[in-house]
Structures are given as C-alpha cells and as structure tokens.
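Recap for those who missed Tuesday's class. We walked through two folding examples back to back. For each one, the amino acid string is listed first and its predicted structure tokens come directly after. Nothing is annotated here on purpose, so try labeling regions yourself before you check the end of the notes.
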Amino acid sequence: MVATLLFGGNLSDQSRISKRVGAIAPSATLAVSNKAKELKASGAPVIGFGAGEPDFPTPTHILSAAVDAISDPINHRYSPAGGLPELKQALAMKTERDSGLRVSPDQIVVTNGGKHAVYNCMQVLLNAGDEVLLPAPYWTTYPEPIGLAGAKTKVLHTDENSGFRVSVDQLNEAKNENTKALIFCSPSNPTGAVYPQEEIKAIGEWAVENDIWVITDEIYEHLVYGDSEHFSLPALVPEIQNRCVVLNGVAKTYAMTGWRVGWIIAPPDVAKAAVSLQSHQTSNVANVSQRAALAAVSGPLDAVQKMREAFDRRREVIYTMLSEIEGVSLLKPEGAFYAFPNFSDLLDRSFAGHVASTTVDLAEILLEEISVAFVPGEAFGAPGYARFSFALGDEDLKEGMQRIADFLQG
C-alpha cells in the first residue's frame, strides 16, 4: 500500500500523459501526510510524523495584515508578476538583517511557495544535458524539477559518519564537464544537519574555483538549536554571488505553509528571466498572501522565537526516545524540525507477522499496526533511514514515539 502511495501506480494508458510529467514521482511527504489525515478523518487514531509543517497558527499580526488587505481594492487586481515592490524591498532588508547578504529588489522574485521557487530556478538555469550535484539525503522535491528541465541529477551520498554533510573531496570527485550547479541546504531537510561556517566557506570557494552555480535553500534559516548557527553561503563567499541563487519562503519560519509565498534571490539577469517565465505561468502570487508575507518579514521575531523554543524542546524528546530503541541510531538534529534515524538494523525482521525488508515496508507496517505515519528514507535517496517531523504537538509526539518503541521492542 505505502509503496504504491509513495512512488505511484501504473497508468492504464501511459501514452495519454506526456513522458516528462509521467516520469515525475509524487511527493512522498505529501502522500504520507494526506494518507494520515484521511485515516484520522475516518476515525483511526493516527499520529503523523510526515508533514514538514509547523503545528502553530500563523502569528496574529500577520493575520491582521491579511484581513486589512482583503478590504483594500488595490489587492483585488493584478500586480507585478515578480512580486509587490514593497514586499521585494522588505525582503531585501530582511535578507541583510538575517543573513548579512545585501541584495537589491530587482534580484528578488516572489513565487507561489518554495516549491515554485525551486521549479522556476531550474527552468531558468538548466539546459538538456546539464548535471546538478545533489547531496543525499535530499528534499524529495529537488530531483523532479531538475528532470523537467531536461537536466540530470548526480547524487552524492552522505551518512551519519560525515554528519550528513558533503565534503569538497566528494564534490571534486563528482564534477565533470557537464556539471552546472550544486544544490546546498543548511539547515537540512530531511536530516536536520547544519554545516559549520568553515565548511560552507570551503564549498563556496570550491564552486567559485570551478565556475559552478550554487542553489542554496535557506528556508530553515531561523530554526537552529544549541551551538549551531546558520550562515548564508553567498554572504560568506561574496565572489559566488554572480553564480548563486538563494531560495527561501515564509512557510517554516512564520507557520505560513498554506499561504504559499516563497522567493528567489538571484543575479539580476536570472531574476529577470524568472519573472518572464512566471508571467506566463501564474502571474503574481495572491496579493493578500503577499501582504501577509510583508507583515511577516518586516515584523518582530517574537513568535518565531517561541516556536523555535518549542521545536527545541520536542527535538530533545524525540532524540531521547528514538535513541532508546534498540537497533535505532541517529544523530541529534541541529536545525529544521526533523529527526532522521537509521533503521537498517531493524530490517529483515518480523513485526506482528510482517517482515520489513525496507523502510518503505516498515512505514506500511507501523501505519497499519499502530497508526503511526512517517516518511521512509527511500523518498530522500537514503534507504534504511526515515524522516520524523517533530513539528507536532508535544503529547502526540510522545505518544507516537512510545507506540513505536513498544511495537519494535515488544
């Protein structure tokens, strides 16, 4: 069931669908989240660790800005395809405040969420035959828009021993004459890894030396814990700025996943091309959402701090409870809101009469037997691992972890 759910079934007549779209793998994270919601709506006591979605409401001052925007007729009309000028100005100021990176509004393109930013970036930068270096584990969405642009993904594997961080040596070994870009994500989805400053700088300098683009995803910039810090790669390595695209959005930091506002920061020619593309795709992002995003990025970070404190508390709980399960190993998450345990030692065992040969199998067993949902590592290019979001209520988190512990050790 879960295998079909995650990786799609067969179309009765594949020729009816274009080859490029037919090759797309459905979003595994959304599939798991939607399945959990369906089961819960039917009365099953499902606890879902699948969605990368804060369980907090959007802060009140952002809601107020949206309510005011609804009543203003100016927001009932088309606006510039690349974003409201005032929002782009605010994003430039926010970027300098949070990252130390100084950019101009003409370098910013406001998109319909972070996924739209990823898609537009790949369409603008990549040609058929280009290769993109992608460290694994990776966010499940990255490979699909690369393929849709006619380019190829070259996966670079990392594991617990490397802290789920790619090295310059790996990059050197993987690059070739077709290498166009590197995707870089810190804090990482799905592993929670955060690259230290010196490693980010080294990767940026490597990209400069090799004339390779860096696409850096900074959407979890405010969600770091303990001694970990977020550093923006183009701020640390200014020489890369003419070959670097920053992806970001309001979804994670401000609990605004449903508002669908992301953005691209790029060299002016790349940003201009992205606006041209978007003018034929979607035109402007909904103006009410843009006004809400304006309030978010230009407002106080008090609510953000409270959410981060809650995530940090949950991080400690999920790390402790997973670590206590025999056969499970994991690194303590340093950022984002995901734990990424290794279940390899539990595979090929029988649980409640079912044998889990893969983490896809294990996900199916746990969903059916104890009503707990998570995303198997296969979705992130990391078989044997699993992603657990800890962006859910404290009691549900503890209950879900206890169910897993009792079942696997029963």
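Example two. Treat it independently of the first, because the proteins are unrelated.
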Amino acid sequence: MLGSTILNLRSRQATSRTALARVFGASASTLCLYVDQLIAQGYVQETGLERTRIGRPKRVLGLRPEAGWFAGVEFNAQRVQAVCVDFAGTRQASESCALPDQPDVQTTLRTLAGVVGKLVAQQKTPLLGIGVGVPGLVDRKRGTGRYFSFIRQWKDVPVVELLQQHFKTGVTIENNLRVVALAERWFGGGRDLRDYVILGPRSGFGMSIMHDGMLMHGAHEVAGEIGLWSWPQPEGGRALHDTLSATAIYRRMARLAPDAPLPENLRDALLKAADPASEEWRSTVLDYARVIRSVQLLVDPEVFFLHGPLTVLGTDFCGAIESAVAGLLPQLPDFQVRIVPSSLGDDAGALGAASLAMEAWNPVP
C-alpha cells in the first residue's frame, strides 16, 4: 500500500488523502495513517490547499524530489544511454557513451557501470534503484540477458547481479522495448491510455504491448518479438527484421544493396532518402500497414507509438500508414488505427528504465 500510494502521488492520479482513499477503496482514516508515515519518512509533503465548492479544503500532497533518485539505463549494440530521475519523477541529468563496433559482453557491462557511475558522482541524494532496458530476450526472474545477437557472447548474462554488486542497490531488468512502453506511460503520450503498442524499428524490429495497463510478456517472455515473423519476399521467406528495421528501410528508400554501409547519422540519411512519390515509400508504407493491421486484430490498441529513427519521417509517414491500413481487408470503419511518432527522443529507453525502477521501489515500513 505504501508503494502504491507513492505511485499514485507521482502520477498525479490522486493528490489528497481523500482521493487516495477513493482510489484504493479504503477509509480516509486508514489512508491518513499511510500518508502520515510517508511524511515522517521524508517521502511525502503537503504542498498547499485545494479549495472546492463543497466541503472543507483538501490538503494537496506531493513527493519530495530530494528523497532520492532512480537511474535508468538502456543499451543496444551501438550505445549506452542513462538518465537520473528524482523521487518526484522529474528527469534531472543524462549520460551516454558509444560502444565500439561489434562489442563483447565485458565491454558492454563496463560501459553500463561507467555511465551509471557518472550519474552517481553527480547526485547528492541517495540512489534508490536502477532499472535496465536490455535488448533481446531477458529472464526477469533470474535477472539475466538471455540472448542478443548483436553483442558478442551475449547469452545468459547476469546483469542484475553484476550491477547490484557494483552499486549496492536494487536492480530491475526488462526488455528494452518494454521499458519504452513505461516511458510513454510516465513521460509521453500514454499517460491516460490503458492499451497501446510501441513500434520499435531500429537495427531490428520489435514491439511492446501495454494491455489493460499491464505490460504483456507471454509465457516465454517473447511477446512482441515480431521481428522474427517470417515475411514473404520474391526471393523467398525472410524475417521481418530484414524488411522493416530502420536500417532496412533506409537502404530500401535509398535504393541500396541490403548489405550497403550505413551512414553515420541514420536519421538525416532517412530524411534525405525518403520520397513520398516513390515506389520505395509506397511499398514501405504498405508493408507497415499490413503488419499493423495484423497486430490491431490481435491486441486492439488505442494507439501505436512509433519510436526509433523512422520518427524523423514524422506525421506524413504515420498518416500514410493509417490511410493504407484503412484500405486493407477486412474493412473496420469503426476502428480507425492511430499511429503517433513519439516525442520522447533517443533517451526514451533510459527514461523507461528509470520508470521501471520507480515502479519496483517500495519504502521500508
């Protein structure tokens, strides 16, 4: 109950004792006891009075930003990104570090610890927890990264154990696209949504699903790994990774070979190569529309949030996909798909990882 009280105050879903009691279906006297305990522990403060037309003014509650902070770190095969979020849920600082080409496990883990260590050195309040967005398959119970093909020897890596030994605090891991879904809930367009999907075309292609306010994992933690879908091509079946990743889309739009070298700035290159009048644009839009219609029929989200380099193509790209979906069978006139380019930027994964740590933390009774 104490942890849930903190989360409701942080999200501003409830900002008074009366509102908290209504959320939990508990008596006001019970919630007063919890709130008074959190105030005594230095986590909650009264920030003023809210006057209403009926009844006495309500004491407005808020979190004390100086009570501590959470580190969020997310990585892929190219870079490590980390952020500091204070106790009230406000981003305070960020750090990033590029990884060398074809990094191995030890290099990646050293960089993770180094980037978080830089944030620790900057903060004067206690580190309360670390959230980590791990690429590929994860085992949340064991705290390991199970498999990721783009980092050498990345198999059953004990990420949680190693970071706990280094920083002496709680560490929680999750797939990096799933933490992006948490970032949308706390910092982006998903604040008031219960059902939405994250589209993550980067070096691969995957998605994460928020269903009824909960992340979907599946029995084997592979829900959303649609990049592994077989995708028909004229020359035979290939994985969806090979067709709809951001790198594959760039090469398609630039009319390059599938193994052509990538530019240093993929976003700028995509913007230059994209031509809405071209056949490459139309075929890309249609491929995305077919995938999104399939996902829509499976999980029926309110919104698809587009993340990664393709966001540079903006609302024109998303709108073209929406129109293409509307033209596909079966016709669903009452269920118009919405696709929104995320506004969170490149550190969405790190923000989501910090959100993971915030949601996992509980005060000591």
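Answers for example two:
The CA atoms of residues 183 and 193 lie 13 Å apart.
Residues 279-299 form the longest helix (21 residues).
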